[in-house]
Amino acid sequence: MTTPLLEASIAGIGFWTRGLPSWEAACAYVADGTRPADPPAKPSPQLLAPNERRRAPETVAVALE
After folding, report:
1. Beta bridge partners of 17
2. For residues 35 and 2, what is the distance between their CA atoms, to the nearest angstrom?
3. Residue 40 near residue 21, CB atoms below 8 Å
4. Could you tell me how many helices (H) and strands (E) the chain has, helices first?
5. What pTM does this model have?
6. Beta partners for residue 20, in sequence order
7. Which of 36, 39, 55, 62 lies 20 to 30 A from 24 at CA?
8. Is the separation of the CB atoms in 38 and 19 below 8 Å?
9. How far apart are CA 23 and CA 38, in angstroms?
10. Taking a C-beta distance cutoff of 8 angstroms, is the pair 47, 64 a contact?
């Protein structure tokens, strides 16, 4: 009996951190050290209630954006 070979592929990359808002910006920073001139602020997840929005960590804010 043979076990079928599993395959996986990457459909996309998500990346966000303060100062480097995208995968392209991160690649540019690694390649030549340049950061975006006007990096975005922390995302504000509008799906959460205002009191939860204030306490939500950046990972939650980015996931809900």
Report:
1. 20
2. 51
3. yes
4. 3, 0
5. 0.51
6. 17
7. 55
8. no
9. 16
10. yes
Question: Amino acid identity, residue 38?
Answer: D
pLDDT of amino acid 32: 94
d(CA 18, CA 42): 7
Full DSSP string of 24-45: HHHHHHHHH----SS-------
40-58 burial: b if 16+ Cβ within 10 Å, else e: eeebeeeeeeeeeeeebee
pLDDT of 11: 92
In whole angstroms, give the CA distance from residue 53 to residue 61: 8
Q: What is the pLDDT along the chain (65 residues), one digit of tens a residue?
A: 788 899 999 998 878 787 888 888 889 999 998 888 887 777 777 788 888 878 888 788 777 77
Q: What whole-number distance in Å separates Cα of residue 41 and Cα of residue 38?
A: 9
